[in-house]
Amino acid sequence: MKAKRYEELVAQVRALIEGEDDAVSVMANVSSLVHETMGFWWTGFYVVKGDALQLGPFQGPVACYRIPRGKGVCGTALERGETIIVPDVEAFPGHIACSSMSRSEIVVPLLSHDGKVLAVLDIDSKELATFDTIDQQYLETIAAAVAPIIEHSK
Ligand code: SME
Q1: In the chain, which ranges are E strands?
Q2: Residue to mutate, 105, 120, 121, ligand 1, most ligand atoms under 8 Å from C-beta
Q3: Which residue has a Cα nearest atom 4 of ligand 1?
Q4: What domains are defined for the chain?
Q5: pTM to 2 decimals?
Q6: Is the CB of 76 under 6 A from ligand 1?
Q7: Residue 8 alpha carbon to ligand 1 centre in Å
Q8: pLDDT values of the chain reduced to their tens digit, one per residue, 154 residues
C-alpha cells in the first residue's frame, strides 16, 4: 500500500539527511531515494534563481534547464506557493514537456520559514493520474524536511 511505502520513505529521508548541510548533496540523495523507492519516471528539484526555476539535482532523463515563474506546472507552483497535482499533463495549459513520455505530474514547493518558495520537487509519471492526496501529504513532509537545508546553505 502506497501510504506504508511513503511512511518508510519519510523515515529513510530523515535518516539520510540528518546532520547534512550541503543543499546540492541533499537534493541529489533525496531525489535518488524517492525515485528508486517509488519507481517514478522523473524525480528532481528546480531551485529558485532570480525570477525563474533552475534545474537542480534529479534522477531520470535530461530536463529543461530553466522554467520562468508562472510557466508550466513548476512555474505555476512557484507562483502559487502550493502543491499542484496534474492528472493529465496534456490538459494543463502551458505544461512544459521536457519528455514526451510524461503523462502526469506533481510539483511540491519547498518553503522557507517565512513562506517563500526556495525550490520545487517535481515528479513525473509515464501513467495518467498517478498522484493523489497521499502523494501530496508525504511529499510535502519530505519537502518540509529538506527546505531548511536549502534555506541555510544559501
Ligand atoms: N513538466 C514540467 C517541466 C519539468 S519536467 O517535466 C522535468 C512543467 O510543466 O513545469
Answers
A1: 42-49, 52-59, 66-68, 84-86, 104-111, 117-125
A2: 105
A3: 98
A4: 2-153 (3.30.450.40)
A5: 0.97
A6: no
A7: 27
A8: 899 999 999 999 999 999 999 999 999 999 999 999 999 999 999 999 999 999 999 999 999 999 999 999 999 999 999 999 999 999 998 888 888 899 999 999 999 999 999 999 999 999 999 999 999 999 999 999 999 999 998 5
